[in-house]
Amino acid sequence: MKNFSKTAGNMMLACALTIGTGIPIAAPAAASTAWVATWSASPQPVWGPDFLFPVNTPAVLQDRTVRQVARISLGGSRLRLVLSNAYGRQPVTLGKATIALSAQDSAIVANSLRTVTFGGRQTATLLPGASLLSDPIALPVADSGRVTVSFWLPDATPVSTFHWDGRQTSWIVPGDNTGSSTLTAERGAPESTTARLLLSGIQVETPAPARAVAVIGDSITDGAAATLDKDRRWPDFLARRLAPHGVAVINAGISGARLLSDGMGVNALARLDRDVLAQPGVRSVIVMLGINDIAWPGTAFAPTGQRPSLEMLKAGYRQLIAQAHNRGVRVIGATLTPFSGALPNTPLDNYYSPDKDALRRQVNDWIRHGGAFDAVIDFDTLLRDPVHPELMTARYVSADRLHPGDEGNRAMADVVDLNALLPMLITPTKTLAPGAQQP
């Protein structure tokens, strides 16, 4: 009887480990490592020529190599790349891809070049609307290390998906230059852009459990006024604080992003799953959205747009929180920063008005005291002028009076209480960092 029970148990196990074709598969081994998202650039659809801003990329790429530099947050010994054709209407043929440690400008560190494969092959196809995950790449990279990723596109490839404001110079050069140590003008002068093309994510293998904090936001999170090529967005500074604790940070900011409406990207709820909840290792998300919902209507961005009510914005936040909580992700709300006098001497100089600012203050009051978020980071209190609270203080504001400069970005990262992001991440203290609160 004991032998029969053992045989029956083995048969049941074999049935449980059989896929639909009847082919037995091995039981998964206990994982000793995990993959975590360590860098991201949220995909956006390329807009038409009638939009206020130029796209800053060619309309079509053919027999071109695109080389991009990315500074990851958390390092490791193996990486994976994520490519996106989210808004493409036709397949994208990838002729070859490489990754290396970055040197100066477009140059790479000697002997660090690795060929990237997809299912064991050097060539791959990105299907319309889909993403593509590479095989693991053995390339040790330190925390806050920079990598250079190059793609060769042999066929005519319409540029339909991009990340508009990468705050980092990328290069486009004729031919297959994926293996070049640097890009030269021998086969044509390299064309530069600050947009991200194809590359939407980098993952790193870490000892389990892997953890990441995502930041979903607009141009303030995207780093619109941060110094080009210096990685001085506020999530960059936050990443440097969190890396020693084994936590990655991914930036899901999109310039022009809105909570409730599409703009220079789809609305927050339409991209929440892709850009935040589906990212491996994400345990918390910081939400800093709403200023464009308030300020865009009536400007050249949306001349006939209708400003949302406070109740509409609250409903949007609550839905975002509910969806994140449904996936076990902690949600931290960030107050909206002052913007009086924003974008002077531009077609958007009516971005600010007192009634818009009144709505911003109502939203901030609800974020602080509504009890909907798991914790709050009060960027408004941090950045506002103590005498004129509708203004961002001169120490932190950039020339456009809307976005913080480098020092403002640093201050924003420094004010974040790490235990509010991930409770018990570090030894608890009796007082929280200024501007943050725990429920």
From TrEMBL:
It comes from the Bacteria. Residues 1-26 form the signal peptide. InterPro entries: GDSL_Rv0518-like, SGNH_hydro, SGNH_hydro_sf. It holds the Pfam family Lipase_GDSL_2. Residues 215-411 form the SGNH hydrolase-type esterase domain. Gene3D superfamilies: SGNH hydrolase. GO terms for molecular function: hydrolase activity, acting on ester bonds. Keywords: Signal. CDD domains: XynE_like. This is Lipase. It comes from Erwinia typographi.
